Amino acid sequence: MAGLGEENDAAPNQAVSVVDYKTLADFEPPMKHKRNKYAFACAILASLISILLGYDFGVMSGANIFIQKDLKISDVQVEILVGTLSLYCLIGSYVAGRTSDWIGRRYTILLAGAIFFAGALLMGFATNYAFLMVGRFVTGIGVGYGLMIAPVYTAELSPASSRGFLTSFPEVFINGGILLGYVSNYAFSKLPLHLGWRLMLGVGAVPSVLLAIGVLAMPESPRWLIMQGRLGEAKSVLDKTSDTKEEAELRLSDIKEAAGIPQDCNDDIVQIQKQTHGEGVWRELLLYPTPAVRHALICAVGIHFFQQATGVDSVVLYSPRIFEKVGITSSNDKLLATMAVGFVKTIFILVATFLLDRIGRRPLLLSSIGGMVLSLATLGLSLTIIEHSDQKLTWAIGLSITMVLVYVAVFSIGMGPITWVYSAEIFPLRLRAQGASIGVATSRFTSGVLSMTFISLYKRITIGGAFFLYAGIATVGFLFFYTCYPETQGKTLEEMEGLFGKMVGWRAEAKKLKLKLPMEVNGDGTSNGQIERQPRLDNEVAYRG
Predict the structure, then answer these.
(1) Using CA of residue 13, residue 15, residue 18, residue 20, what is the dihedral sign?
(2) Residue 126: how many CB atoms within 10 A of its CB?
(3) For the chain, what percent of residues have pLDDT higher than 70?
(4) Cα separation of 184 and 181, whole Å?
(5) Which own/partner contact pairs does 239-242 have at CB distance under 8 Å and 24+ positions apart?
(6) What is the pTM (predicted TM-score) of this model?
């Protein structure tokens, strides 16, 4: 005790630092009560756009059945109708990166909602297949905008302690929208054929009005404001969205450094000499990337590719057809089973939001895709048995339905939300919007290819063979993630660049960072062990506070 007193007398500032630091440790229960409510509310408002996206995906799974009957279109035309939305997203996500740097994240969200509103009305009033495809094109542009901007805005607004929780909101709302789409399928399926599917698609315009009202209450991204030289406004937003005053100051300092603004510059408005509207960014991102940027880009493209290549949109968009192959013949029962998929997906994505900042991105990602491998392989096996059996096998039918639900559950608890969280946080500020848009483009292109070929694929290699193929792709994804993906939990957005740079050797760099942090806190290289385990942001808040 005497020794402890002497140490405290000799270095009172260090003792205070450790005490402050300890209150932030491991996001302990006291920290939960300090979760920033303003950032929470802003994340919810920004994520409303994702309801529109999810609704369109979900509702088309059932609507395409009635559209095919009403408009007398072929299976290939159904594939084109369903899958081209994802390809149209490529245009939206590409333009959204530059638009968000030009007019800001906030108004880009509003623009996405307006485009989606127009697309939903066009689809709802479509009189033929060509008219419907025009509405589908407009909707796809809006979807591309929303998929890119919602995670970027939320990541830039959120404090590091809850960034994973808040940045997963878009995925939560997408799943909620999918469930609403499934419910809409069931609710309007009882109406006359020519009216039911048009209402299913047209009511998607209603939430856009609520989104427009919500945007008025949202602040602009502090990082975008600083890139425009509007320091005064950015300080105000950071003070409201940070857990502590010290964290707000640290975030401001980090963003100023990334934007090339001197630390001693505290004017409300400053002149930014650097390019602020995306000029030269694509060259730096694609043609002459640093090792860290190249690593981040490969990780972003890879995680978006494997998220879609493992078949999730095939399940979401073609659930009624999958359940028909299982042995469910009634349209009513197929839609009810599809609603169960949406319900399970939504429940498990909610569970994931509370685990991202506790367990970390990497453990959840690896356990999720491991579960996907097992469920896809088992589903492929059970469907193959059903297809080659001359009699009804109740156990195989039950196993197939269970594996569909298990698959969407393990996807939603890891692979689903982490894809958006991870790709939104790993790029440096100057490249973040464009980097995220490349990730979205990869996701939508892969989704479009799979959605436009799923019916043809299972006709060629059987329905069981299709899921065996997805299981093989998921296995490759597991190995890729295990080898190349570092943990990003607790890191500030501005220090991500130091974590990336070595595709395989990142573990050594992460260990060096862990060893370095306690030395920064204690000043003598000693540590009590508990401090070593803390995220970087908490270390710096304790040290500087």
Answers:
(1) negative
(2) 21
(3) 82
(4) 5
(5) 240/36, 240/38, 240/39, 241/36, 241/38, 241/39, 241/42, 241/157, 241/158, 241/159, 242/36, 242/159
(6) 0.72
